[in-house]
Amino acid sequence: MTEKNIAGSTERREKKHSRTKTSQKKREDHLRKKLKEAEAEAGTLKDRLLRTAAELDNFRKRTEREILQIVQNANRELIKDMLPVIDDLERSLNVCEKKGGGREFIKGIELIYEKLMSTLRSRGLERMESVSKAFDVEKHEALLQIEKDDTPSGMVVEEHEKGYLLNGKVLRHAKVVVSK
Would you tell me which of 97, 130, 161, 170 could form a disulfide with 175, CB atoms 3.0–4.6 Å apart? Predict the structure, then answer.
């Protein structure tokens, strides 16, 4: 090999090495830039996650407060509607004490009962009719069975406690006696 060839070869290697260093430097700079972008994005996503978690927790707490408030207001309205019934009962008791009771007292109690039932009906309460109806486990609770010659088996013959529906759903089962 000649000196010229050796010098050219060395020069080429140095250029190649220089290009490799420059290329490697560019790649490192590019990777550092990508890493900084990824770290910034991770920070943004972490912040967004924390904010979303806090919003969800606030929403849950707010919803619980609203549900509690709805229940309390529903009870408040029912109790408010019952206050005139209490007033009427107190007036009936006062009249009974002053006049000695009797027929007026019974009539007053009947009127109060009707007012109470009217208030509850307006809130969705219905009385279930049970006597002379077929026994239904969804609506009735059988206290006992008796034999009755004139009644078919499985029919309600007596009602010991009235059953009620609230907005079409059983609120209290009727306690009944069923024929065998």
Answer: 161
Return the structure tokens found at 37: 């972008």
CA pseudo-torsion sign 115, 120, 126, 131: negative
Reference 142, options 126, 165, 159; nearest CA is 159
Q: Which pLDDT tens digit goes with each residue over 107-147?
A: 888 888 888 888 888 888 888 999 999 999 999 999 999 99
What are the structure tokens assigned to 109, written together? 């109690």
Residue closest to 120 by CA, chosen among 161, 167, 88, 163: 167
Residue ranges of the domains in the chain? 1-123, 126-180
Strands 140-146 and 174-179: parallel
Structure tokens given for 175:
């306690």
Q: Which two tokens stand for residue 165?
A: 């529906």
Confidence of residue 6 (pLDDT cuts 50, 70, 90): low
What is the radius of gyration, based on Cα positions, of the chain? 43
What is the CATH class of 126-180?
mainly beta
* Angstrom distance (rounded) from CA 165 to CA 172: 7
Which CATH architecture best describes the domain 1-123? Alpha-Beta Complex (3.90)
Whole-angstrom distance, CA of residue 52 vs CA of residue 55: 5
